[in-house]
Amino acid sequence: MNLNKLKKLSGDASFRNFYRSKNSIIVYCIKNKKSNLLDYDAINKILIKKKVIAPSLISQNYKKNYIEIEDFGDLTVFKKFKKKKTKKKNNIKKILK
Q1: Global pTM value
Q2: What is each CA distance from 51 to 48, 95, 97, in whole angstroms?
Q3: What are the residue ranges spanned by the domains of the chain?
Q4: Tens digit of pLDDT for each residue in 55-74?
Q5: 67 phi/psi in degrees, rounded to 5
Q6: Which residue has the higher pLDDT, 85 or 70?
């Protein structure tokens, strides 16, 4: 996989790097692979089981340090709150439904 051909996305406070491919997100990490890939996937599975919207695993190659997950697009919770002038508590309830 050539990550240079993919669009790099802003990440989180981990050692993971996120890249957008045509229809998915590639989560790439070399350092602390267990906590940054395996645990990330496990937490997403728990969230999905509890009916919280989280990206599902599409494929994985832990030996090559990446997983592929669903791409929810560019809309973030922050952008959604900024866009609407309603109360944040109501927006959070709608997002979690």
Answers
A1: 0.69
A2: 5, 11, 8
A3: 3-96
A4: 889 999 988 889 999 988 87
A5: -130, 155
A6: 70
Residue 48's CB: how many other CB atoms inside 10 A?
A: 14
Cβ atoms within 10 Å, residue 28: 22
Token pair of 47 as six digits: 């969230």
Topology (CATH level 3) of domain 3-96 = Phosphorylase Kinase; domain 1 (3.30.200)
- Specify whether the CB–CB gap between 83 and 53 falls below 8 A: no
Q: Which two tokens stand for residue 90?
A: 């109501």
The strand order across the sheet containing 24-28 reads 7-9, 17-20, 24-28, 66-70, 57-61
